Amino acid sequence: MQVHSYLFFDGRCEEAIEFYRKAVGAKLTMLMRFKESPDPIPADKVPPGSDDKVMHASFDIGDTMVMASDGCAPGEPAFKGFSLSLTAADEAEARRLFDALAEGGQVQMPMGKTFWSPAFGMLVDRFGVSWMVQVPGPM
Known about the structure:
- This protein has helices at residues 13-24, 91-102, and strands at residues 5-8, 27-33, 54-61, 64-69, 84-87, 106-112, 120-124, 130-134.
- The protein starts with a strand and ends in a 5-residue tail after the last strand.
- It is of the alpha/beta class.
- The strands form 2 sheets. It has a 4-stranded mixed β-sheet, covered by helices on one side.
- 17% of the residues lie in helices and 33% in strands.
């Protein structure tokens, strides 16, 4: 069994994927627009002008698949109650990933040494997604 994250970006999905591609080396594996759906989508399920928006996408960050969409819910996405966690090989990589994800976002806990990790930090990226970046500790 596997559990994957599915993120809804309310019209900014392609922008988010491009950001993650540059920030953490995400690799796009699939992208389908609403207009490309093999089944017709009822007009009341998708806002007008959504034909070119992302119905479904998947991308890999390291060995993990993340799925995403522009979604059908209007308004600002609210990514609350969870964080995506990145484990870096070393402190230099952790710092690089943290700084890249923090660009245009908000640092919640600056990268630093903790009792469980030589480098750990928390941030919310420019899309509102919460991240934890760390290096495995001696535990």
